[in-house]
């Protein structure tokens, strides 16, 4: 675990605007990504994450322009993900100003991509996003019940892969991932707290930094996620809509005896 916990606002970007919903549904507008990025930099965020939630071909140029504009406004690391399918995509985003690049669906489709990116740019550039959900009897396509109980999903949690999430985290770590962005699809947008069981299982499966995402609603939700094994905590709607500030989260972490940046 890192010495100091990072607090990371996440901006889900769709066609050049920040949006947020519950479980990636019922999206509502949350503002201009460049303006929000500059605001979070001023508020003391340690990093920023941009996720292109539509990641369609027609939005790619828009996202590159957003990344370039945001990078000119901020002085903290910027991770960009969504629709990254190749080494060339990573190169394009890094040239536009991203410091790290997040990969999800393309790595599931072709796991060799993880090693290709790590070899070309260094593993410190590569963040593997893992959208995990609990396997239930109602899961249309779930992992075997003997597995970890968590499945990797795609398409905002709407599509199961049959891949055990914890085994996948182990695999991408071996292949060269520099960081894991772990999002609980069950908790996403609910503001009911992080999935601590999922975080503990992921922590046991990887040696690289782990970012916990999904479920933050109150300042007191964050310290347990770190105690469960997260090196960084990520949130979106609670920051975008003024429910919490970065300072409040850092105060809660400090009050729990944790070191923050």
Description:
The structure is a single chain. With 261 residues, this protein is of the alpha/beta class. Helix content is 36%, strand content 26%. It is built from ten helices and twelve strands. Helix 8 links the parallel strand 11 and strand 12 (232-235). The radius of gyration is 17 Å and the shape is globular. Mean pLDDT is 90; it is low at 142-146.
List the helices and strands in order: EEEHEHEHEHHEEEHEHEHEHH
Widest sheet: strand ordering? 1-4-5-6-7-10-11-12
For the sheet with most strands, the description reads: 8 strands, parallel, barrel
Percent of residues in beta strands = 25-35%
Q: State the helicity in percent bands.
A: 25-40%
Strand tally is 12
- Shape estimate: globular
Contiguous low-pLDDT stretches (5 residues minimum) are 142-146
**What is the rounded Rg?**
17 Å
Helical element count? 10
Distance between the termini: 14 Å
Mean pLDDT: 90
Could you say which structural class the secondary elements and strand pairing correspond to?
alpha/beta
Keywords:
261 residues; globular; eight-stranded parallel barrel; alpha/beta
Condensed summary:
With 261 residues, the chain is α/β, with parallel strands linked by helices. It has helices spanning 33-43, 57-73, 87-96, 105-109, 112-121, 165-175, 196-205, 222-227, 237-240, 246-255, and strands spanning 6-14, 17-22, 25-31, 48-52, 78-81, 100-103, 126-134, 150-154, 159-164, 179-184, 210-213, 232-235. Strands 1-4-5-6-7-10-11-12 form an eight-stranded parallel β-barrel, surrounded by seven helices.
């Amino acid at each position: 675990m890192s010495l100091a916990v990072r607090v990371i606002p996440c901006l889900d970007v769709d066609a050049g605007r920040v949006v947020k919903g519950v479980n990636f549904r019922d999206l509502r507008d949350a503002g201009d990504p460049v303006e929000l990025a500059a605001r979070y930099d001023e508020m003391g965020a340690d990093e920023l994450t941009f996720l292109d939630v539509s990641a369609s071909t027609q939005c790619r140029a828009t996202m590159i322009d957003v990344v370039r504009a945001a990078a000119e406004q901020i002085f903290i690391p910027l991770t960009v993900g969504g629709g990254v399918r190749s080494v060339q995509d990573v190169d394009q985003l890094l040239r536009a100003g991203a410091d790290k690049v997040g990969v999800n669906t393309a790595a599931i489709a072709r796991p060799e991509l993880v090693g290709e990116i790590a070899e070309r740019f260094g593993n410190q550039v590569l963040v593997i996003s893992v959208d995990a959900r609990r396997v239930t009897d109602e899961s249309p396509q779930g992992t075997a019940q003997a597995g970890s109980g968590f499945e990797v999903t795609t398409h905002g949690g709407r599509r199961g892969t049959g891949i055990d999430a914890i085994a996948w985290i182990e695999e991408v770590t071996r292949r060269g991932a520099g960081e894991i962005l772990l999002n609980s699809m069950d908790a996403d947008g609910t503001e009911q707290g992080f999935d601590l069981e999922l975080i503990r299982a992921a922590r046991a499966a990887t040696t690289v930094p782990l970012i916990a995402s999904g479920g933050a609603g109150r300042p007191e939700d964050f310290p347990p996620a770190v105690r469960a094994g997260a090196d960084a905590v990520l949130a979106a709607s609670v920051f975008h809509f003024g429910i919490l500030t970065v300072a409040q989260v850092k105060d809660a972490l400090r009050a729990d005896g944790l070191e923050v940046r």
